[in-house]
Q: What sequence folds into this?
């Protein structure tokens, strides 16, 4: 009896492993479309003494993703899973109040924001359970689609996966109207894409480094969009702007539509492109964003999907396999007209490496950058403020890596010796680095110096970030050297 029970369990496991299409593990299983896309609420703000104040509370909850077996234990900000969309206006003075109501330490990092190091929310800005962290800054950057997520050293993958992330939009009241759809939740849609796996009783499989999985870390078998499985969006306008965010641990998406229709890419990580880039696909690695505008005909149904990305590993299907739907768009029988897109969206100066006097090299390999795994107590280098630099990042592995720098929007000068694709030639804070190749970045820190409190640079595949593919730099006044980081006695 006991033995046959064990066999039944083994067979069930085998069947589960083979149930993905094609039998390949880590492949997304098709889902019935049955839930309207949830739109994260816009975070409420109050005015206090000239500042815009936004309050976030990280706490445990239970979440119905639409999975079999009932709600999952999750963590979220002002809700059970993910957080509200924070909207900040360029020029405004901000204070955030981040309360940790979890029973574990956390931090909250503003990914893509230009902020003082002490307000950046990296691994040194630990918020103990029960505490509130109150960073301040003045918004000084272009309108764009940023995000925020927890960033405790060694724990980022599991905390982000369980729900500590959200979108952060910068609005610029001074920017000209270029015809972009801008009704939040109607024709301006946040699209947070993640892959998950669930246990039979509906709990999240939390396994940042699965045994036998790809070296890049966790890949789920279920797509969750804004926290729901099998989503659709009712479309009521001719054009829809989608703010795509890859908030997954390791999966790279090659977004487009099920009929391969063309769309316009209008923004990269940090803001609008100079011109719309018409394309059928946009590939995003973890942490990257793109804004796209797609047009629909009345009454039609088409899906945002992902096809296999080009990773350059020689075995790409191991790292991000399959074609699958992400969000179905259902157009109403009559659609409200949308304005035409302007041909010029923004003015971005050409990225000119001649202005840079320093070149730094970053060799990403295994669990380290330049042979050194991340250490909380070690500042790797100091960058003088206001001095453009060329950063050359080489992936020395055969596996995927990407590269993210805190506090800055950089420009990609070249990738594998070629100029970047126009969709990636604008403002970026995260860039894919194909195996055995080099990306060259133009990086400049225009303000905020602190010789002790570091910013991070790292691979944004969350497992890699946690296991050491990260380092620390400070931005200093000309002539200053790096000091000592606040947690110089921290173990790792
Ligand atoms: Cu998206 Cu160091 O973070
Ligand atoms: Cu990596």
A:
């Amino acid at each position: 009896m006991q033995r046959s029970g064990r066999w039944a369990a083994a067979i069930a496991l085998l069947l589960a492993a083979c149930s993905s299409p094609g039998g390949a593990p880590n492949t997304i299983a098709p889902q019935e479309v049955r839930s309207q896309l949830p739109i994260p609420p816009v975070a409420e703000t109050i005015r206090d003494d000239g500042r815009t104040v936004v309050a976030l509370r990280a706490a445990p909850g239970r979440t119905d993703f639409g999975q079999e077996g009932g709600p999952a234990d999750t963590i979220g900000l002002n809700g059970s899973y993910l957080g509200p969309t924070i909207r900040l206006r360029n020029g405004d003075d901000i204070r955030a109040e981040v309360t940790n109501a979890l029973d574990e330490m956390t931090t909250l990092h503003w990914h893509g924001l230009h902020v003082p190091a002490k307000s950046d929310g990296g691994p040194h800005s630990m918020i103990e359970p029960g505490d509130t962290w109150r960073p301040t800054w003045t918004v000084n950057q272009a309108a764009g689609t940023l995000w925020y997520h927890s960033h405790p050293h060694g724990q980022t993958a599991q905390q982000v996966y369980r729900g500590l992330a959200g979108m952060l939009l910068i609005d610029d009241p001074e920017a000209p109207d270029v015809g972009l759809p801008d009704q939040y939740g109607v024709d301006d849609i946040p699209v947070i894409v993640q892959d998950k796996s669930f246990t039979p009783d509906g709990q999240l499989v939390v396994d940042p480094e699965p045994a036998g999985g790809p070296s890049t870390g966790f890949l789920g078998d279920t797509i969750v969009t804004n926290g729901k499985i099998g989503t659709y969006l009712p479309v009521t306008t001719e054009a829809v702007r989608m703010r795509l965010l890859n908030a997954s641990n390791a999966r790279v998406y090659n977004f487009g539509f099920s009929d391969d229709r063309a769309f316009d890419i209008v923004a990269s990580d940090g803001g609008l492109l100079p011109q719309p880039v018409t394309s059928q696909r946009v590939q995003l690695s973890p942490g990257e964003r793109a804004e796209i505008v797609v047009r629909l005909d009345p009454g039609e149904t088409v899906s945002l999907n992902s096809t296999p990305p080009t990773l350059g590993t020689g075995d790409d299907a191991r790292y991000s396999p399959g074609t699958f739907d992400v969000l179905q768009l259902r157009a109403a029988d009559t659609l409200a007209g949308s304005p035409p897109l302007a041909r010029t969206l923004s003015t971005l100066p050409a990225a000119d490496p001649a202005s840079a006097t320093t070149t730094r090299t970053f060799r990403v390999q295994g669990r380290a950058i330049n042979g050194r795994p991340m250490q909380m107590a070690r500042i790797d280098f100091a960058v003088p403020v206001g001095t453009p630099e060329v950063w050359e990042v080489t992936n020395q592995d055969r596996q995927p890596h990407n590269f993210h720098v805190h506090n800055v929007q950089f420009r990609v000068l070249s990738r594998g010796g070629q100029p970047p694709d126009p969709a990636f030639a604008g403002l970026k804070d995260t860039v894919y680095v194909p195996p055995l190749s080099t990306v060259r970045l133009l990086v400049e820190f225009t303000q905020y110096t602190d010789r002790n409190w570091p910013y991070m640079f790292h691979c944004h595949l969350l497992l890699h970030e946690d296991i050491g593919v990260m380092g620390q730099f400070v931005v200093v006044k000309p002539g200053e050297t790096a000091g000592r980081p606040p947690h110089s006695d921290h173990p790792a």
Observations:
- The CA atoms of residues 233 and 329 lie 5 Å apart.
- Residues 109, 111, 149, 151, 287, 404, 406, 456, 458, 460 surround CU-O-CU linkage (ligand 1) (CB under 6 Å).
- Confidence is low (pLDDT under 50) at residues 1-24.
- The chain has three domains: 5-171, 188-336, 353-476.
